[in-house]
Amino acid sequence: MNTVVVGTADCKVIGDPDATLVTYGLGSCIALVMHDPAARVAGMLHFMLPDSSIDKARAKTNPRMFADTGIPLLIREVCERGAERRRLNIWAVGGAQVLDKESCFQIGKRNHLAMRKILWKSGLFVGSEDVGGTLSRTVRFETASGKLTIYSDGVQRELPAGKMSGGATCPTAF
Amino acid sequence: MLTAEIDRALSRCTGRVLETMCYSDPLPITGLEEGQTLLHAELHFHGTYSGVFHLDITEEAGKSLASTFLGSDEDPPEEQLGSVICELTNMICGSMLSTLDARADIHLDAPTLVAEDAPRSDEVLSKAFEIDNGQMAVAIRFN
Amino acid sequence: MSYRILIVDDSPGMRAVLQRVIDLSGIPVAACLTACHGLAALAILRNEPVDLILTDINMPEMNGEDLVAELKKDPALSEIPVLVISTDATSNRMQRMLELGAAGYVIKPFQPETLRSEVERVLGGVHVNG
Question: Which residues of A touch C26 (CB under 8 A)?
Answer without folding.
Answer: 86
